[in-house]
Amino acid sequence: MALRTPLALSGDLPVSVPPGFGHVRLRGAWLHAGRTVWLCVFVLALLVFGVALFRLYDVQSTPCATNPIADSWPDCAEFQRGIDQIGLSPRSFGAYFFVLRGVAALPLFALGALLIWRRAERLPALLLATLLPVVGAAGTWFNPLWDWARFFVPELDIPVMFLSTLFLCGYIFGYTFPDGSFVPRWTRWLALGCIPLAISRSFLDGTALDFETWPAPLPQALNLGLAGSAVYALAYRYRRVSSAIERQQIKWVAAGFSLLFASWLVDYFVWNIYPELTGEALLSSGRALVLWELAQDTAWYAGQIIFAVCLGFAVLRYRLWDIDVIINRALVYTTLTAALVGVYALIVGLVSHLVQVGGGRLAAIVAAGVVTIAFQPLRTRLQRAVNRLMYGERDDPYGVLSRLGRRLEASLAPEAALQTIVETVAQALKLPYAAIELHLSDGPFVGAMTGVPVQHPEPLTLNYQGETVGRLLLGVRRGETHFSSADRRVLQDIAHQAGVAVHAFRLTIDLRRSRERIVAAQEEERRRLRRDLHDGLGPTLASLFQRLDTAGTLIERDPQAATAMVQDLKGQVKTTVADLRRLVYALRPPTLDELGLAGAIREHATHFEGAAGLHIAVDAPVTLPPLPAAVEVAAYRIALEALTNVVRHAQAEACRISLTLDDALHLEIIDDGVGLDAGSRAGVGMASMRERAAEIGGECYIERRTPRGTRVIAHLPLGERG
Q1: Cα–Cα distances in Å, from 616 out to 256, 652, 654?
Q2: Which of 284, 415, 498, 577 has the most neighbouring CB atoms within 10 Å?
Q3: Correct CATH for 592-717 of 3.90.380.10, 3.40.605.10, 3.30.565.10, 3.30.390.50
Q4: Residue 494 and residue 497: Cα distance in Å, rounded?
Q5: What's the CA gap between 417 and 405, in Å, rounded?
Q6: Which residues pair with 474 in a beta bridge?
Q7: Peptide bond into 18 cis (omega under 30)
Q8: How far is CA 162 from CA 45, 55, 204, 698, in A?
Q9: Which bin fits 77, alpha (ψ -120 to 50), beta or left (φ > 0)?
């Protein structure tokens, strides 16, 4: 308002008190008493607001000659000339503000009534419902409308004092929203101190106990301290204490309040800071005053409507929409307003100090030029800063990928690479949790994790050359329920690099497990040899030694018995030699060294040929170069196992074994038997063939032929030929 009354509360910025701060529920007589108190406050606020509304309409629509406050309003004539200059009449000017103030107050009165209707049994809701009509009746918080009702109707003095006390206690809202508990705990003492300050300001106005009469800067510091503590309490609660739902509620309130704060900041600069710096008013002509009145009050009341809507969503419908975009823009433009006001004030003060004569007007022109030039660059920088604060680096995907690439290059071990990825994602996008889940043969495995696990993480599939190798599990930011499209674009770019790293890690795990299997197989083979030597050859040789001693003693005494014993010992030695050959054959079949791989397979095939009419053909190069010993043994064992399966199960008439050689040894066994049953599971023999191929880095496939028969294919890499 351009009209300033002696009772204006300059700088006071109270807030309100929402639902849910505590679990106190009212029933019976207490509930009826609470509703009665609310109804009294509601009617009283409506009465005071109605009186102020109509009296202000009279002031703004009545010509100066008959205006009721013309004697105390020296700028009345100049102001009404300004109304005429913009093409309005005093009556239309007053009518505009009459409607504007009424429309702006309606949502606050309605929200208070809605809370009583829906949640009157909850004490926090009841307290907020009581405060909302008081806030609505205040109109412009820094220059409450009820001061006009008090000015024209002295009988309303006590009711206005009562409403003003409730209004100033609104600072407690910031200490308790949204669940009713005081967070941090020390804010309860500030709340207790706020009550006597509000009472003294309202009922002892102008006395020594009224803090507005204290020497500067004590009143300003007290107002800023209370407002700052309320904002800090909300921020502290948001960061440290609140659940996801409570964070959404705080976001809604912060979005609505930031618009009112920006409007107040501009008004405070125009009417307080600028005159203090320059010694002259920024708005001096009637036309300028009228235009300012129209612009500033319209902006304030529009912000009040938005605040009421945001508060309603915070209390009742906070789950409906994502508030982040509104919060983002509110932070940007509120900070931008504060920064530009600060720059303007600094330039005005500096130029006014340097240029004594006419400095105010020159300062205003210079400051306006600087603000105009700085607006867009400053807005861009603030937008980036706020985006980074809320969403991390999602607007700079190239920077995220570049840093991730550098960190991956510095990570030597695949395990470190996965940890680098999850840490980079969590830091860049400000996520509370990130993990990489690998898809291994024995089930999912978490390869890296950072942050605190969440109940339902958002999964992002990781692929490598068309194969799914794992998932990136992510926790959404606090207060959010899903990732935005901008977040997903950055995450998709990261997923490409993560897929390669996960594939490399899987190869490392497979290699490690393969080595473990090889070592286990070696140890098992050694254990078997030890058992056979200890339990078989050892006792046999000991028995031979003892019986030879016995035979030696019988030679002179009973030559015939000694000769019989020696003949028996010869048979036992023959059996022992056969056992020893069996052990050696299990290590490496001698026929491989004697006949080569192709000859050994042919020699073994002759034992099966003719069985049940089976014909076996072995196709191999005339001469095979020297092959690694492990490859020869694996190929030989796979061929023998496949032949055994053909003889036992295939009911085949023909079987062909083919050996080809390039950079690997390729073994193929084909029969024309009954083939594999559909859906049959691999037995021990099939599994052993695959394992023998995998031990040396190869592959073995077993498939059904059309129209009948089975095909076994093994690809065995040669490595360095021995």
Answers
A1: 87, 10, 6
A2: 498
A3: 3.30.565.10
A4: 6
A5: 10
A6: 434, 458
A7: no
A8: 10, 20, 12, 89
A9: alpha
Q: Are 251 and 324 in contact (CB under 8 A)?
A: yes
DSSP strand pairing (654-661 vs 615-619): parallel
711: its two tokens: 């095909």
pLDDT digits over 308-317, tens only?
A: 888 887 776 5
- List, edge to edge, every strand of the sheet that includes 467-475: 443-451, 433-440, 467-475, 458-464
- Compute the half-sphere exposure of residue 510: CA atoms within 13 Å on the CB side of its CA: 16
Sequential DSSP letters for 191-248: HHHHHHHHHHHHHSTTSTT-GGGSPTTHHHHHHHHHHHHHHHHHHHIIIII--HHHHH
Sign of torsion, CA 576 582 584 586? negative
CA distance 442 to 472: 19
Per-residue confidence (pLDDT) for residue 645, from 0 to 100: 86
Chain segment 591-632, per-residue pLDDT in tens: 888 888 899 888 888 887 766 678 889 999 888 888 888 888
Q: Return the CA Rg of the chain.
A: 46
Contacting residues for 280 by C-beta, under 8 A, at least 6 apart: 360
Which of 331-345, 436-450, 556-570, 619-633 has the highest average model confidence (pLDDT)? 619-633
**Tokens found for residue 193:** 């101190």
What was the pLDDT predicted at 489?
Answer: 76
- Residue labelled with tokens 């010869």: 570
Per-residue model confidence (pLDDT) at position 713: 93
Q: How far apart are CA 582 and CA 511, in angstroms?
A: 32
- Assign domain 397-512 one CATH number from 3.40.50.2000, 1.20.1250.20, 3.40.50.720, 3.30.450.40: 3.30.450.40
DSSP string, 139-184: -STTS-THHHHHHH-GGGHHHHHHHHHHHHGGGHHHHHTTTSS-SS
> In this model, does residue 17 exceed pLDDT 50?
no
Question: What pLDDT digit, counting tens, does each position of 410-461 carry?
Answer: 555 566 777 777 777 777 777 778 888 887 766 677 778 887 787 778 888 8
In the block, residue with structure tokens 């910031």: 174
**Could you give the C-alpha distances from 254 to 186, 219, 225, 227, in angstroms and in order?**
22, 25, 18, 13
pLDDT at 659: 93
